[in-house]
Structure formats: C-alpha cells, structure tokens
What does this fold into?
Amino acid sequence: MGTLTREGVERPRVGPRARGFTLIELLVVMVIAGIALTMVTVNGLPGSQRGLRFEAERLAQLLWLAREEAQVRGTPLRLQADDAGYRFLVLRERQWRPLLDDPDLRARAWDEPTRVVVQRPDGQRVVEFGRDAVDPPFTLQLGRESASVAILANGIGLFEVR
It folds into this structure.
C-alpha cells in the first residue's frame, strides 16, 4: 500500500516490491551490448595481419607440398612470387616452366598486393626444391601496408610461420 501526502493523494510505494529497471541499469546493459557488438564486428572482419597470416599459413603448406613433390618427381620445383601472386615452376628441358599438372600447386593471387622477400644464407633470392632430402634454409618475408609475416624453412622440411 502507498503513503498519503498532505493533499490526500496516495503515492506509490517505492521499495523492495517496486518493479522495473532504473535508468542506470538500462544504460549499463546498453554499454555492455555495445561493447559485445563491437567485439563481434571487429573479430568478424579480416584485418590486414589476419589475412596475411592466413596467406602465409597456406603458402607454408604449399611449400611443404612442393618440396615433397620435387622429391617424388625427381625434378626441381621453384617458387615464383611477386606483389600480385605466386606460382610454382618445374624444370623441364633446361627451362623453368609453370607447373600446370598439379591442382594443389596452381598459380594463386594474393588477396591484397603483397611484398615478397627471400633471404638465404648463400645470398640467392630464390626458393627452390630439388631431389635431395636437404635444401638450403631460407626465410620468406611477406609484407603488406602495416603487417608482415615470415615463413622460416629449416631445409629439412619444417616450415614455420612467425
């Protein structure tokens, strides 16, 4: 029951039995919902670093496959890459030719323009796999505007993305 005022009007009772939410409670819920929505939106969009890392992981797997393929075929394979994309070449009749008979090692385009830099201890700037079980180690740097990722190859079949 409520209380009477001087004018004889009954005021509703405020206390533990009152129902509804206060303005503060509603604002807190709206802020939490806004933060959650922002997190979902940000995580749902592929960032430059995330997209580049995905590309590097895929390329590392393809490099492993190319290395194995070179040993199985007994023919050297080479990676050819630029800012638009990459492909694998095979040495046939003393010439490097595009590898067309393997759907996994087909030519691919980058999602965005990507800088590619090869670093090897012997100074050469190519990634090449031969018939031998040991290849020269290398680092393959992939870079975009504000993101960069490296693929490290130890020469015996381990490719690590950092």
Notes: The longest helix spans residues 48-73. The mean pLDDT is 87. The chain has two domains: 3-44, 48-161. The helical segments are 23-44, 48-73.
